[in-house]
Amino acid sequence: MRCADLIYVDLDGSLTYTDTLWESLATGLRRAPGASLLACFNVLRGRAALKARLAALGAPEPVSLPLREPLIEWLKTQHAQGAKLILASAADSLVVGPVAMHMEQAHGLPMRSLSSDGTVNRRSAAKLEAIQADAGAQSWAYAGNSTDDIVIFRKAHAVVVCGDEGDVIAAARATGKLVAQFSEPPEGKGAIAALRPHQWLKNLLIFVPVLTAFKFLDAAVMWQALIAFIAFSAAASAGYIINDLLDLASDRKHPRKRLRPFASGRVSVLAGFGMTFGLLVLACGSALAVGP
After folding, report:
1. What are the strands of the beta sheet with 111-116, ordered from one edge?
2. Quick check: pTM over 0.85?
């Protein structure tokens, strides 16, 4: 049975497991690293301006995004029953428009789009205002995944929850209008796999001079070698993560690499940038502890 005349579907974290803002930064860093880093200063003009600039430099290819397939199948059922679909996202129009077009071409789901435009960041209350203006007197449902969406859930005629965030699920249930929930994790490996810990074995070569100099009973020397091992391993893992972030699109086209943590969407791109920064700090700090 059709849940509403119109179904508004959020993009980041809902239709796709990833966040297209950070995907745009990662793609931009590969295409034009200097311009992409400078683009981050657009946040001073507002989040909408930041999204627009990053999207212009590195909007991800719609075909490469990891999509929530169970939600798509549900949308197909609703569309077959006469519901009209709208991709309503706080992402920039340069991202949202192509994804909406891809949904029709690849999945047979015609979609209009509502999005941020470089000036207005259509998130939370601003997105609700845009949806209400677009829907008019028609009944509408909303599919979302974050606490920003709770204000929209309360006004919707029907609610769909994506993801497994407890507060969001509880808020959706509290409205009494929850009609579907999609909390399945994406296929792929977790954050530990992104570190490539098995590659740390190469860094055991650091201990070879200690052994050949017969210093393995010297606690001070062994301690310094251990700290050096940690520094090398942290730096190597940071390199692997950055490589994965820059290769998202190509990894997703590969039968095996598509299961990597960031390509699959199991670990967020933002978490990847955070892990890289933390690992580089650990690497440099450990190295300085051994000696300048």
Report:
1. 111-116, 84-92, 6-9, 140-144, 158-162, 178-182
2. yes
pLDDT tens-digit series, residues 120-169: 999 999 999 999 999 999 999 999 999 999 999 999 999 999 999 999 99
CA-wise closest residue to 261 among 239, 277, 279, 245: 245
Tokens of residue 227, six digits: 């700290």
- Cβ(7)–Cβ(86) under 8 Å? yes
**Cross-strand partners of 144:** 161
Q: What is the pLDDT of residues 116-126, one digit of tens each?
A: 999 999 999 99
Q: Which of 148, 173, 152, 194 is nearest to 13 (CA)?
A: 148
Length of the chain: 292
Beta strands in 145-229, from DSSP E residues, in sequence order: 158-162, 178-182
Q: How many CB atoms lie within 10 A of CB 238?
A: 20
14, two tokens: 């809902």
